C-alpha cells in the first residue's frame, strides 16, 4: 500500500509541478511593481546537496521534506538541530546578472547555485494579489517561497511568474531560487554551443501587485489583411472574470470602446480607423493604448504595421523593404557577461544604427525585453530566435515540449512589439526526418499562436547538384519558412576570400532570401596584409568580397552578418588572438570598431 501511495504522491506532485507554470503576465515593465533586484545571498551547491539526499532522491518528493533541503530559511534556532547550510551567513551576489562574470571562482562553473532574497511586503489594497516575475534564469530554475515550492522553469531566456499571495507575510518573506545551468543532451540548447553558458538569475526580478481580477494578457495588432482594422484579444485572470466590462482607449485615434468578456474572461474585438499612422523603421510611431477594468488601467505603447512576403519581396506596410542587419549576442558592452539592462540594449542598438542597420538578428535565443521595446522606439526590425541550435535531441518528446514552451513564452512576451517581424525556429540544424518533423511542428504552433509574423530559420547551404562552384539551399524546411535564410562562411571556414569570386548561388525557392550569417575573425589592432588570417585587413577583405558575391542573388532581401561585437565562447582558445573570445565582431569587446565595420556601413548606406 505504502509503495502505491508514494507513487501516487510522486505522480500528483510531478503533474502539479508541471502545472506550476502560470500564464505569463503581459507588459510587466509598465505595471505597478516592486523590484527585487539587488544583493541576494547565494550558496554554490555542485552536488545538489540541497535538493537530493545521499541516495540522490529529491527531498521534496518525499512525504516530509527534510530540513537539510536548502529551501528552508535555516536559522539554527535549535542548538541541537543538524543544519549544514545557512544563507544569512553566506556570501552575497548582485541579482540580476550571471555568476560567471561576477565571481572569478565561478567563471567556468556549470552546476547549481542557490539564491535567497528576504523582504518585507505590505500589500497595498485588501484582496489584491501578488506575483513574483523573473525576466529569465539560466537554465533550470526551482522557485520556493516561504518554504513552499512554487514551481520549476526550464529554459534560460524567457520569462516566468508565480502567484505568492497565499504565502505572503508582512515581514521576513524569503524567496529561495535554485538555478542549475548544467548543459544537457536533451536540453534546448543542447550540450554544444558557441557562446558562454552564463548561469544564474540573469534578468530583472519583480513583484507585481494586481487586483483580485485583472487583465493578465492581451494581443493588439493591425489586421494582417485590412490596414484600417485593429484586432484585439484580452484575457482576464481572477475569480470574477465573466461578463466584465473592459474599456479600450487609443486617444490619438479617438478610440474609446467598451466590451464585455465571455465566461472564460476573454474578449476579442475589432476597431476600425482610417487615420492609423503605420509603424515603420523610418517612422516608428507608437500609440498609447489604455486598457481599463474597474479602477485598474494598464498602459502600453504599441505600433501598428503589417509584415508580409510576396514572391521574393518582404513587404512592410505593403512596401518592399531591404533588411540591413547585423547579428547580436546578448552580452553587456560595458561589463561583459549577460546583458540585461536598458543601457546595455541601448548601446548595442545604437551601434547597429551607426552601422546603417534597420534590422537586427537577436541570436541565438530571446534577448531581454528592453531590447525589443527599444527596437520599437528606435525603428529597428527584429528577428527573434528560439535556441534550437545545432544537434538537438530531435526524437525526444520532452525536448520538443521544452522548445515549444520556450517559443510560446517569447511569443507571449513580445507579441505586441511592432519591431518583431520574424520568429526563427532554429539555427544550423542538421537535416533529417526527425529534425524536419520537430521544426515543422514548431512552425505550425507558431503560426497558430501568432499569424501576424513571418517564420524563418538559419539553414545551411550546400553544393548545387555536384557542382563545386554553385551553392544552393537543399533543405526540406525551406518549403515551410516564409523567409529563406541561411549561414555561409566562404572565405573563412570554406576557402579564402578569393574563393567568393568562383562561387555563384542558385536559389530555387521563390521566397525572400536573408543571409543570416557570414563573417570572419579579426583581433582588433592586428594589422597585416589581406591574406593574413586574424588581421583586420583579412576580415575587411572577406566583407568586401562576400558582399559582392551575395549581392548577385536575385532574391536577396537582407543580411545579418556575424556579428556586431566580439563575444565570449569556451570554443575560442587561440592565445593572443581569441583568448576565450569569438573574434568575428565588427567591434571589439572594448567597443573599438574594426575596418570591416566601415565596409558594411558603406554597403548599407549605398542601399536606399
Ligand atoms: C555558426 C553559428 C554561430 C557561431 C558562428 C561562428 O554559424 O551559427 O553561433 O558563433 O558560426 O563559427 O563564429
Report the CATH topology name of the largest domain.
Answer: TIM Barrel
Shape: globular
- Secondary structure class reads alpha/beta
Roughly how many Å apart are the termini? 75 Å
| CATH C-level name of the largest domain | Alpha Beta
What compounds are bound to the protein? alpha-D-glucopyranuronic acid
Mean pLDDT level: 94
Please give the count of helices: 7
What amount of the residues lies in strands?
25-35%
Please give the share of residues in helix: 10-25%
What kind of sheet is the major sheet? 8 strands, parallel, barrel
Which regions are unreliable across 5 or more consecutive residues at pLDDT < 50? 1-20
What is the CA-atom radius of gyration, in angstroms?
Answer: 25 Å
| DSSP E strands, number | 33
Write the CATH architecture name of the largest domain.
Answer: Alpha-Beta Barrel
CATH homologous superfamily caption of the largest domain: Glycosidases
Trace the largest sheet across and list its strands.
21-22-23-24-25-28-30-31
Number of domains: 3
Q: What are the key terms here?
A:
8-stranded parallel β-barrel; 608 residues; 6-stranded antiparallel beta sheet; 7 helices; TIM Barrel; binds alpha-D-glucopyranuronic acid; Immunoglobulin-like; Jelly Rolls
